[in-house]
Design a protein that fits this description.
heterodimer; A: about 120 residues; mainly beta; 4-stranded antiparallel sheet; B: about 110 residues; 6-stranded mixed sheet; about 0% helix
Amino acid sequence: DAGVIQSPRHEVTEMGQEVTLRCKPISGHDYLFWYRQTMMRGLELLIYFNNNVPIDDSGMPEDRFSAKMPNASFSTLKIQPSEPRDSAVYFCASTKPGQGMETQYFGPGTRLLVL
Amino acid sequence: AQSVTQLDSQVPVFEEAPVELRCNYSSSVSVYLFWYVQYPNQGLQLLLKYLSGSTLVKGINGFEAEFNKSQTSFHLRKPSVHISDTAEYFCAVRRSNDYKLSFGAGTTVTVRA
């Protein structure tokens, strides 16, 4: 399996622009998580899905952030409009019930810089 | 809610020396505990986990951790480190009936020859 795939790996944009981050979970995994990593706040869970349905979005910072999972193999995290304080590394992770479900498999991350 | 405290932000260590990374947690309910490693410019990789049973847990790359319920600790150890162990290490906790991981601030381990 290719693991969790994220795109783009790097994104540089200007303040006010819309940013879309993409994630493909490991096939067969029905839990998907979005995390943000910054120097100031460390690793934070933003939102997670089960069977494409958002279960907990309490970590989403504000209305500028939205996440969707239209099918089992694809999720997006959108920031509109972006701000410099959104600069961070965004990770996607997936897991599945049963064997090894306690283990979340992380993607390589998207490094976002908002100028 | 549960929380995690990693007591050391940076740990320099010489090659082939032992290392211990300290992690304390707080939770009012039963929890699962994890250690993840992040190599430069990469995602997180699971080193080991404690769910139940033996309090000494062995993981990949020669790492082990010991769960101490009375001390609410889950310290990570390796008896002899390599240059390739240079990375950031995260302790994480989640409630046994939930999937939300809470991470510590991380410990940067730098191994020198």
